[in-house]
Amino acid sequence: MAIGEFYNASRVLIVAGKGGVGKTTVGATVAVAAARAGASVLCVELEGHSVLGRPFGVDTIDYTPTPLWRAPAPTTDGRRGSVRGRRLTPDEALVEHLQTHGLDLLAGRVMTGGAIDVVSSAAPGIRDLVTLGKIAQLERNAQADLLIVDAPAAGHALSFLQAPAGLLETGEGPIRDQAERVLEMFGDPDRCQVALVTLPEETPVRETIETAFSLEDLVDIKLAPVIVNGVVPEIPGLAAARAADDGARDADPRTIARRRAADHRLAVHRRERAAIEELARELPLPRIELPLLPTTRLGPDDLGRLADALTRPPTDRLDGGQGTER
Amino acid sequence: MTTDIVVCVGPGGVGKTTMAAALAVSAARSGRRVVLITVDPARRLADALGLASEASDPDSADRADERRLGGSGALGNEPRRLPLDDTGTETGTGELWASMLDVRATFDGLIREHATDDAQARRVLDNRLYDDLTTSLSGTHEYMAAERLRALHVDDRFDLVVVDTPPSRHALDLLDAPGRLARFVDHRLYRSLLAPRKGVMRVVSAATQALARAIGQLVGTTMLTDVTEFFAAFEGMDQGFRDRAAEIDALLAGPTTRYVAVTAPAAQTVDETGWLVAELAGRGRRVDLVVANRVLPDFGWRPEPARTPDPLDVNLADLATRRDAQLGELGALAGDGSRPLIQVEERAEPVTDADTLAALSTQLDEAWNRLG
């Protein structure tokens, strides 16, 4: 299997990364790539205001799976892939868990009565656990060929994924059973893996390295290739052209603009390469780079281009011309 | 009235910490005695702010224990004065201090302050659940940022506090968290859990008692006992928490407190910022200024979109197109034009030392014309 088809390795892919790294875009890109290859994909959005549907032109996603995209054509073996999306909030998952276990009274008070604070302080991580438990249930019920989970943002991915192990130690009864089921899924690389998303910048790279090692140490879960999102694409011949331009002294605004713009881009490349090299040096995981597209509002076509970059073997990209929109 | 508190809000990943630092430097250079409260700065920014040795202290865990036992005092919380490059100082009176939010130490201090005696403080601090509370209860981070803000605001050494809020999906937690914790400590569910312990006849509804039993069934009886003991340890501290929450609330709503939204010119970031500005407005807090970080520079000239093979023109046209898209995004935040927006150019190199930070800060001097 090519690196770019890592999503075929398991039925659940948890996409994790700090806020602002483009986790949702990466999840949608993987969804499109898998659907083009014939898979039925369900994207699960956990919290925050809904952004999952946007690149597909869908405004709101709710708790029932909403169709987002359909592959334009079936694969050679006749499968026509699709992408659906649904939301799954921790509160919703907790209410469902409580109702399943005959605790309807508590379920009714989770949202309104502040009972969640009491429960959370007695059993920290319980919201994360029941969310993951719901995902494990969707996986067992084979709701899709591939479930893509947009993990909580900020620095919470680690505590999110550590919650089951923590509650296995301290929990009792249904909580403990739930933790066992989730850990079983985590421990099986055919069922579940985590893709870390980062940006080609110093701080996100450093945090990604730390998160990867912490996951390795603390959570028994397989790590997919690291996705480096938003890499400014190179323009073939730019460095050479800038070097050739160096001698001339010209106060013409056109010349000045061309030089400044070239210097800017080349400096950005140096900064980004330094960050990616640090990632390569420190983290023994394969990497996939996705280009920063020139549009800020991505649509389905843009996701298609990103999916191309995702699935193209890295060796094709050594010429540095990938993702240049021309 | 002169601004004496600046709260920087914004989504994660926009360089908010750097912008808050640059705002603080700019204010210090114009003669203010500024203290900056940062949250988790990047290593090189921490270097630039003279905070790095604390950030990378390998013994911090040990020292946290020591601190809990009333030892050496706060690590990151205590502001450190930074040398200010006086070439840019107009009055010569400006000072720049920086501190790093230490959630745990702040929380410890709050417990000690509100405890009726040392024994009570120790009962809370030594409880197994206390560690979890300081890290897992939503809004704790934000509450402690607000608590530090209050402490430094009343500190005579400073006349301006710039606070960088924690990266959070719920950036509004800074406003909501103090009240939430006060309610939490005083929650009637705890009352019902505590009632039998204390052997006091209380009027607790049957429904609430049943709810407490249901929680016991969910989390297990051992954990329920733990949590009951934990909240028993808080007994009598709730009034202190409530008063403090009210004080912080008044401070954050005060006429000399300003809100600055930091953003970056990407679609989702701009959307989140717009949402945040609207939510703040809904709570009566006006964002006075938007700082857009990492905007591509204007190179002054652009080639026609001809099919030129010249890489220099291809690049210039590409960057100009990207800049147009960025400015298009930011236009949505300017609204009717009444809210000023300062663009800070994308830097090819990160902030690495006090000099690059000072250079960056000049791009924010204009902010103080708006903020006063």
Structural write-up:
The complex is a heterodimer of chains A (326) and B (372). By secondary structure, chain A is α/β, with parallel strands linked by helices. Chain A is 46% helix and 14% strand. Chain A contains 11 helices and 9 strands. Chain A has helices at 23-36, 90-100, 104-110, 115-122, 126-140, 156-170, 173-186, 202-218, 238-244, 253-282, 300-311; strands at 12-16, 40-45, 66-70, 82-87, 146-150, 192-198, 222-223, 226-231, 287-291. In chain A, strands 1, 2, 3, 4, 5, 6, 7, 8 and 9 form a 9-stranded mixed β-sheet that branches. In chain A, helix 8 (202-218) links the parallel strand 6 and strand 7. Chain A is elongated and about 80 Å long. Residues 315-326 of chain A have low confidence and may be disordered. By secondary structure, chain B is an alpha/beta fold. Chain B is 53% helix and 12% strand. Chain B contains 17 helices and 8 strands. Chain B has helices spanning 16-29, 43-48, 52-55, 60-68, 103-114, 118-125, 128-136, 140-153, 173-185, 188-198, 206-219, 221-233, 238-252, 267-282, 311-334, 354-361, 365-371, and strands at 5-9, 33-38, 80-82, 95-100, 160-164, 257-263, 287-295, 341-345. Chain B has an 8-stranded mixed β-sheet, with helices on both faces. In chain B, strand 6 (257-263), helix 14 (267-282) and strand 7 form a beta-alpha-beta unit. In chain B, helix 5 (103-114) crosses helix 8, helix 9 packs antiparallel against helix 13 (238-252) and helix 14 (267-282) packs parallel to helix 15. At the A-B interface, helix 3, helix 4, helix 7, helix 8 and helix 9 of A face helix 7, helix 10, helix 11, helix 12 and helix 14 of B.
